Queue: 2 jobs
Job 1
Amino acid sequence: MPSVYNRYCLHNISELWTPEGSLAAAGAAMARLKKLHHACLYVVDGRIAWVGEESALAAMGSDPAANSLKREAALAPRIDAGERACVPGFVDSHTHFVFAGWRDDEFYWRTQGVPYMEIHRRGGGILRSVEATRAATEGELIDLGRARLNRMLSLGVTTVEGKSGYGLDRDTELRQLYAMRALKGNNQVLPLGAVPDIVSTFLGAHSVPHEFAGRPRAFLAYLLDAVLPTVRAQNLASFVDIFCEKGVFELEDSRWYLERARAAGFALKLHADEVAPLGGTGLAAELAAVSADHLLKASEAHIQALAKAGTIACLLPLTAFSLREPYANGRHFIDAGCAVALASDFNPGSCNSQSIPLIFALAVLQMGMTVEEALTGLTLNGAASLKIADRVGTLEIGKDADFLLLDAPSPSHLAYHSGMNLVVEVYKRGALVWKNGNALDAAPFDSRV
Ligand code: NIG
Ligand code: FE
């Protein structure tokens, strides 16, 4: 059987779970999923044309338009889901996947008790990755990026956000963004195989480079004057992000920079209150940022402010795990009315992991979230934090047919099989792009991100 049809009806799905809507789900809404049994998914030209239970497909109602759609679905070629569970493709909404070099020695020091920021102060940390990334060609960054994206795809990630921030100079920051742009184009080039869709973020304000040591404001002014206009003109990034952290970019510098980036037309994200309780979470709410990320040390008042502002709380459990820090209290964020997204933060320093299965396990077993809420955090709310929830993140009519089949009868197993990859098939815009450990050179799908 060919791996993809223009038009097919995937049937014999044991259980299909999906959040609904095109806006982030906040508070109690995060747990409200549509759950279908014996479901089928009718896909036409890479989009979902109908989704429902097999019994509903057979039953004809009074609406003639719906009836003709059902008739079409019933006559379409059928693909057997093999009584597997189905969920939307995962959206990993916070990663730093384009970098060169490793920092395994730093990881070793951290296991010996040296704090992350102490390594940073000694000139290690982000600046070491900057050195290696500056020395890498665009081709090398593309190759490194592709290998990481393939692994993400195997874990069910169909859309990924990628940040620059290991260049800290004009040329290298742009080179990281060009590498991501080239990898997006990869989706149309056979036989290289498909990768997740990529949404790019400009994180030039990731650290202060040696050239500007002790002058963070001057460095931010350089980014605004010498780099951001090109990023904008060439449409290289949708978001601007900053590492708002004690000893890196303080609150006032962050506000100054982000206000200007916003005026230049960018939506905002912040690395906020990750290590020290500086107040970046409150700043994100004040500036109506799309998301505030990390939030390990966010204050109660600022959590309330996030909920009120509608700024998505992007929690990154793998980073807390890797830094041996207490996890963000996901339960509390949700009960306070926040929309929580979950993401990997994959990077060479604080979190060298892309493990979606471990995110599920930590969210449910350590952060007080239900598996339904964790699924919403990794799908709809991830998509909303990238401003693409009108297109991906749920399995609803009109959305891209980005979905996963799991080696389990129910999506509830996503946390129950702790840390295990249950994904057996990945579909991107209707095309089977990964199956049982093999990346497939499936029919190309157009990349519209
Ligand atoms: O999200 N905190 C800043 N940035 C990354 C870490 C980057 C690094 O250590 O290379 C983070 O944790
Ligand atoms: Fe990060």
Job 2
Amino acid sequence: MTKIIAADVLVTAPGRNYVTLKVTTDEGVVGWGDATLNGRELAVAAYLREHVCPLLIGRDAHRIEDLWQYLYKGAYWRRGPVTMTAIAAVDVALWDIKGKLAGLPVYQLLGGAARDGVLVYGHASGGDVAELLDDVARYLDRGYLAVRAQSGVPGLDKTYGIPGAGQTVYEPASGARPHEDLWDTAPYLRFAPEMLGAVRERFGFGFHLLHDVHHRLSPAEAGRLGRDLEPHRLFWLEDPTPAEDQEAFRLVRQHTTTPLAVGEVFNSVWDCRQLITERLIDYIRTSVSHAGGITHLRRIFALAELYGVRTGSHGAGDLSPVSLSAALHVDLSVPNFGIQEYMGHAEPASEVFHTSYTLSQGYLHPGELPGLGVEVDEAAAANFPYDPKYLPVNRRRDGSVHDW
Ligand code: KDG
Ligand code: MG
């Protein structure tokens, strides 16, 4: 038995807010888990500190599945982003410990490498099409084989996916309330095919092109957009409609052959069961940190494999380097891997998170260090206190709230 003797929560903001769980064992081995839930960080920190950490003390760190079941079923209340992010942090920290004790990188414990590297897509963006094209060129020059393209929409001041000059995060400045953006579907629907067409026209078809709608369309609108984009041969169209309405994807599917990717807001296999078993999507985008850790993510991916759905884990910058490392170990080992999002982390994140993954020719590799291959510098973390921030809210021209 390897006894857990401490479980501590670190809240730090090196470039953006991150919540990290540190689990310490009686042998002095430490495991790290990411508990960041963008804009709701302190809810997960409190859930862990008040309700989960005390339950971990004295338990066997090796019994990952048992602890997962204990925290999930034992709470009685099921699922939800706060609970599942907290459970994920514990789960990932325990896999880290198991790998360190075994002297093996986590992917070896998951069955070993099923591929040599993890195909990633980068985030190209611009305030307008000209800026976007310059950014796509930068990614292709750096050897990326897959690029997500987002551009400002004419007539709209701000749009999701455009970080703004000199920034690498999508959220606006700190504050007690979210910033409010204007949203108008009609100009976006006219503009998106033109924008993605311009990317293909300039750079051709020799790389994978992706686009994120970020849940903003109705099923009929999404079907039309998917059809309009068919000539541009997208790798995927992401979150075309609000993800929680699984039925809606039937309608989208009936109208387009553009591949669909969904799942960054899901927390469990139950959230995506219909999408997978009815083959309504092509890629499942659940993440290690928001969908119950490595243990539960593997279950979702195994279900997806049965139905020909491939993986495409969420990997925005608000998932910490601990999450990205964990995702890479899963990506390397599952048979139905598709692609991994790789947005990178705004500095000074690297002062706090010391990582060992490497990027080469468009592929990431988690490295060969025992465990996850990421360590957290607690002294450095203490230099970056929590900084309240929210994702923006969208309002239509008439003032009503729209999906962001
Ligand atoms: O916190 C929310 C972000 O992670 C999300 O808006 C990013 O949609 C996103 C993506 O595809 O990375
Ligand atoms: Mg997205």
